[in-house]
Amino acid sequence: MTTKYIVDIVAGMDDADGFELATPVLMRSARGAYAQAIRAELHAIGIDDLPRHGAIVLAGVDSSRGSRPDLPAELGVTKQAVSLMIDTLADRGYLDRRPDTDDRRRMILELTDRGREVVDAADRGVESVERQLAERVSPEQVEAMRTGLSALAQIKTTAVATGTGRRRPPRELRRFSPIFPVRDLAAAVVHYGSLGFAARSVDPGYGFADRDGLSLHLAADPVHDPPHAASAAYLYVRDADALYQEWSRSDVGGRTEPVEVTAYGLREGSHLDPDGNLIRFGSPIDE
Predict the structure, then answer these.
(1) 23-162 in CATH: which number?
(2) What radius of gyration do the chain's Cα atoms show?
(3) Would you say 182 and 275 are in contact if contact means Cβ atoms under 8 Å apart?
(4) 12: pLDDT strictly greater than 50
(5) Is 184 strand, coil or helix?
(6) ω into residue 99 within 30 of 0, thus cis?
(7) CA dihedral in degrees (116, 118, 123, 129; nearest 10)?
(8) How confident is the model at residue 97 (pLDDT cuts 50, 70, 90)?
């Protein structure tokens, strides 16, 4: 049976010496088994711009024809955070929204074809883990594990409700995205695609370029006059030299400057796009 909303699982294991690990250690070691399998399925179909918890929200919309009211509590976030998540999913083409004709205060949410692909991929990831789990433990053990996890969830909920436990304060700042003005949006989408971004326009005047969980906004500005009105952003990367090699290929437009060692401890290069927008990128100097 597919369990759409669970993204972590505890798979009991002991170390090689037979020393029994504490329950919190086991949970930390095993957390993310479902999420890892789902990410693999999403990668296989080319989905690389899904925000964190995005698959869970889409599954909730799919099962209830609208966001589930218990999702904020289930994810440990605020209702406002789920609302922002839905906005992001709609902007990136995973959801369609339209007013409810019976209640103008509400929106009807429906999965797009792209959103359906995500839900189907998540189901495949969940089923893959559950098949592997069934090969390792008995159905009775799986049921006992689920019972234990449900009890732990109830303990957490009770602690928060009674004030004996502390909920992690919500983060106000979630993501910081620069907005680059571009004279020709279609040309900018092509350019950032050549840099390895998943770039697209969402309307004639605005677009996005996403890569590795980061998002760059592209705003059409026909009277944009570089270098007088260009923008700049700093990109922290794992390997600045590798990115320089990627962005200095002959088929990439703009200008990419070689990496140099800076006085502030980074190996740093830069890329100037055809509209004069500057991306400086750096990685720590290897010790």
Answers:
(1) 1.10.10.10
(2) 23
(3) yes
(4) no
(5) coil
(6) no
(7) 170
(8) confident
